[in-house]
């Protein structure tokens, strides 16, 4: 799985974690990605989307609507 957002292209960042004693340790900052089912141009697709794009409304979730259950007559 590619760790990039399919909408904005956000990808991992690399750098150093710096302690109080100024020791440097390599580390990675990864984007918060979710697999989201969406509908693009009439086709259902699963995209890797960062939570920022999802929250901003760049992608609409395709939510399966449950069937309505008949109400029992009393």
Care to describe what's here?
- This protein is mostly beta strands.
- The protein is 8% helix and 38% strand.
- The protein has one helix spanning 51-56; strands spanning 13-18, 24-29, 33-40, 43-50.
- Strands 1-2 form a two-stranded antiparallel ribbon.
- A hairpin with a 5-residue loop joins strand 1 and strand 2 (24-29).
- It is elongated, with a radius of gyration of 20 Å.
- The model has no long low-confidence stretch (mean pLDDT 91).
Taking all Cα atoms into account, the compactness measure Rg is 20 Å
Shape category: elongated
Biggest sheet: strand arrangement: 1-2
Per DSSP E runs of 2 or more residues, the count of β-strands stands at 4
Task: Give the distance, in angstroms, between the N- and C-terminal Cα atoms.
Answer: 53 Å
Order of helices and strands: EEEEH
Question: How does the helix and strand content classify structurally?
Answer: mainly beta
Number of helical regions: 1
The description of the largest β-sheet is: 2 strands, antiparallel
Low-confidence stretches: none
| Percentage of residues in DSSP E strands | 35-45%
Helix content: under 10%
Estimate the mean pLDDT confidence.
91
Give a short summary of the structure.
By secondary structure, the protein is mainly beta. The protein is built from 1 helix and 4 strands; from the N terminus they run ββββα.
SSE inventory with pairings:
Layout: E1 13-18, E2 24-29, E3 33-40, E4 43-50, H1 51-56
Antiparallel strand pairs: 1-2, 3-4
